[in-house]
Write a structure and sequence with these properties.
The chain is an alpha/beta fold. The protein contains nine helices and seven strands, in the order βαβαβαβαβααβαααβ. It has a seven-stranded parallel beta sheet, with helices on both faces. This is SDR family oxidoreductase.
Length: 251
Amino acid sequence: MSKAGPVVLVTGGSRGIGAAIAAAAARRGYRVAVNYAANETAAKAVVDAIEADGGEAMAVAGDVAREADVVAMFAAIDERFGRLDALVNNAGVVDRKARLDQMSAERLERMMAVNVVGTMLCAREAVRRMSTKHGGKGGAIVNLGSVAARLGSPGEYVDYAAAKAAVETFTTGLAREVAEEGIRVNAVSPGLVATEIHASGGQPDRIERLRGMIPMKREGRPEEIANAVLWLLSEEASYTTGAILTVSGGR
């Protein structure tokens, strides 16, 4: 079992914003559990990069929408590190651009299962470990929302927008629920960010198409979202809980 340094779990940590958060956490002294659903190679690449830079990390498989996977993932972290100090609920999915009247029940169920239920299941396991009510020493949770929760994403992803709105409401409620138990719960609400998620949703040109709508006239970088997440995890944010921090270039 490892002995030094706080431990953070980053779900969906194998690419994009999650990978940037994992790397930033390691640079700040965290030991990092990098969760992935399917791409083991990508997750191991993130772990290798952290270790090459002198940090400590592990890759841990699990579909956050499956309770058994979530329980097993946290058990693996317990075994390796023996503690958990922070959770970043970054894992999420999007789908093809569509109107609601084109969406199947299967798509809607998967959207909610990963983005909402997965966030809540991981937070549940974190609370069971961090809460002073359960013998823990406190900790911090950061959930990834989206400006889509406010904008609604009409004609594109109203299901994704609704899921992220649920995540942000959950953040507010959980923050108040566990505030006396040493756990801070906040969210980061990113705007348009340069990651692979746009291509995976069938819109590889989405950034170019929407860039002009952003007051700063540029997309965000994953590292900029990671910096906001790490601030919320840090002692600099010790009196901040229930906050939704928008990082969107002004949109």
